[in-house]
Amino acid sequence: MSKFPAMLVAVDVQNDFCPGGALPVQTGNDIVPVVNKLIQNFSHTVLTQEWHPAGHLAFASSHPGKHSFGSTELSYGHQVLWPDHCVQGTKGAEFHPDLLVTNCETIIRTGFRRTTDSYSAFFENDKSTPTGLGGYMRERNVKTLYLCGLATDICVLFSALDARKLGFRVYLVDDACGGIDLHGSLDAAYKEMASAGVVVTNSEKVLSGRN
Ligand code: VGL
Question: How many distinct structural domains can be found in the chain?
């Protein structure tokens, strides 16, 4: 099969977002073979990896008296508080052991400063600090992005919306994504992506060249 010139971005396929991890997506393990099939068929794959220092301000444990899934105000505004996850150098921050990491050309690490979380692969949660991925894609003349990974309704969603804002064509490869779906968040995410012009597709269509 010919390789696609477009770029595949696999978001946060890390142990802490898979069953047994700190913030598990139930289908986290199931998407890995699908993501791998995509990786093997794209000429450019970028991985994102949440990479938080211990004591990150998006962790509930950094705010005495506050609980996970509550919230706080950080310098850039509202921030949900999470259980400690994807801490630099820990097993939870590692990629899923079956992910074909060696076939990937770049890793963008996000949320690596204690004060700032980053859901999107393109901008930190202050909505203004770029991660560099947009510039990387532009310099390489990549106009089309295929997104997969975890979680559909958080990091994949924010990445898809930012990619559209930056003018990229965006396909969401649905069977290579896993969602958390808290209080209908998955449905809301699909609606938001559709109105931003994100095209939802699946791996079969992508690999057969139909999307
Ligand atoms: C995510 C919580 C915190 C995710 C990221 O993408 O699922 N969830 N950071």
Answer: 1
Q: Has residue 18 been placed in a domain?
A: yes
What pTM was computed for the model? 0.96
Q: Is the CB of 189 under 6 A from ligand 1?
A: no
CA of 180, closest atom in ligand 1: 7
What is the per-residue pLDDT across 153-205, written as a single tens digit (0 to 9) for each? 999 999 999 999 999 999 999 999 999 998 899 999 999 999 999 999 999 99
Give the integer Cα–Cα distance in Å for 112 and 53.
Answer: 6
Its domain, for residue 181, covers 4-53+88-207
Q: Is the CB of 206 under 6 A from ligand 1?
A: no
Question: Distance between CA 37 and CA 190 in Å, rounded?
Answer: 23
154 alpha carbon – ligand 1 mean position (Å): 6
| 123 touches 150 (CB < 8 A) | no
**Minimal CA–CA distance to 176: which of 65, 45, 58, 85?**
45
Atom of ligand 1 nearest to the CA of 155: 6
Among 4-8, 156-160, 205-209, the minimum mean pLDDT is found in 4-8
* pLDDT tens-place string over residues 82-108: 999 999 999 999 999 999 999 899 999
CATH code where residue 22 lies: 3.40.50.850
Q: Is residue 99 part of a domain?
A: yes
